[in-house]
Amino acid sequence: AMDYARLAEAAAEKMELYRQDPVGWRVCRHTSEVAVSWRPSAEFAGNLYRGEGTLPASPQDVWECIKPVAGGSRTKWDQNVKAFEVIEAVSDTVSVCRTTTPSAFMRIISPREFVDVVLMKQYEDGTMLSAATNVEHPLCPPQPNLVRGFNYPCGCFCVPSPGEPERTQLLSFFQTDLGGLLPQSVVDSFFPANIATFYSNLTKAVKTLKA
Question: Whole-model pTM above 0.90?
Answer without folding.
Answer: yes
